[in-house]
């Protein structure tokens, strides 16, 4: 059960309005330090994103989710996969893309949902919007049998790579890749992304074997985890892309799907 009340330990919520015509409930959003950011609302119809038909049948690891956006090639398993099945349609209804879902033992139990706009951006206000809309949905579905904290965030600079386009968009940057099954005798690789070749990710190895190739091709459908490595070049490129987005007028579509390197 998601922790929803200012009476719960570790959370402080703003008090409800002093005068209102009917009982109100607090819809929490993104957390900031020990405060929830949200609003008191009148009980009534479900907020946008909570709709009939989202509850699906039980499914196992590896089940593909239907997506209006580019489908993820790296996903979750077990309970995290069920959580993705619950929230991804609502996240897409809001115009965002689900990146990853992570359950961790931080603060007792934390459900972290990483999301982004199609252009890769994600503001604090965007996080609030997603959180406000999926919180009631998670309360109805109640997929976690203990108290937990919900955290909606951007993927971060050292982001997970979960879609085919991620491996093209971030070509030239260092990544760590772990395979579900060993390839050429190993499962873990680190190197510079060098684009795609058919259904394979090309990686220029940081430390190639003495008599082996310095570049490998890794099957996209065999990737269990992939993430960018934080470097000075990655930080600088991300900052340049963010400055470009801030200069664009509201609602501008140009460059929404471009590589960050094209936004300088």
- Major sheet description: 5 strands, antiparallel
Share of residues in strands? 25-35%
Q: Figure out the total of helices.
A: 4
What is the annotated CATH architecture of the largest domain? 2-Layer Sandwich
* Radius of gyration based on Cα positions: 20 Å
Strands, total number:
10
Strand line-up of the largest beta sheet = 9-8-7-6-10
Task: State the end-to-end distance.
Answer: 44 Å
- Please, how many domains? 2
Q: Assign the CATH topology of the largest domain.
A: GMP Synthetase, Chain A, domain 3
CATH class of the largest domain: Alpha Beta
H-E order: EEHEEHEHEEEEEH
Low-pLDDT runs of 5+ residues are 5-66, 251-264
Specify the CATH homologous superfamily of the largest domain: RimP-like superfamily, N-terminal
- Helix content, binned percent: 10-25%
SS-based class: alpha+beta
């Amino acid at each position: 059960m998601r922790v929803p009340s200012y009476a719960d330990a570790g959370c402080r919520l703003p008090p409800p309005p002093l005068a209102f015509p009917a009982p109100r409930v607090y819809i929490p959003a993104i957390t900031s330090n020990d405060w929830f950011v949200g609003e008191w609302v009148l009980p009534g119809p479900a907020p946008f994103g909570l709709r009939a038909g989202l509850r699906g049948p039980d499914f196992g690891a590896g089940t593909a989710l239907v997506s209006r956006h580019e489908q993820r090639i790296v996903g979750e398993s077990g309970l995290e996969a069920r959580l993705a099945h619950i929230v991804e349609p609502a996240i897409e209804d809001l115009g965002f893309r689900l990146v990853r879902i992570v359950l961790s033992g931080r603060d007792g139990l934390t459900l972290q949902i990483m999301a982004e706009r199609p252009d890769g951006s994600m503001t604090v206000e965007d996080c609030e919007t997603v959180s406000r809309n999926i919180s009631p949905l998670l309360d109805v579905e109640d997929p976690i049998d203990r108290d937990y904290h919900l955290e909606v965030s951007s993927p971060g600079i050292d982001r997970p790579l979960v879609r085919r386009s991620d491996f093209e968009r971030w070509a030239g940057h260092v990544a760590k890749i772990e395979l579900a099954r060993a390839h050429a005798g190993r499962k873990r690789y680190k190197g510079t992304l060098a684009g795609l070749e058919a259904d394979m990710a090309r990686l220029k190895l940081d430390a190639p074997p003495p008599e082996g190739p310095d570049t490998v091709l890794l099957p996209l459908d065999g990737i269990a985890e992939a993430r960018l490595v934080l470097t000075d070049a990655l930080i600088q490129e991300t900052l340049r892309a963010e400055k470009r987005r801030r200069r664009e007028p509201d609602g501008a579509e140009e460059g929404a799907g471009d590589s960050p390197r094209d936004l300088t």
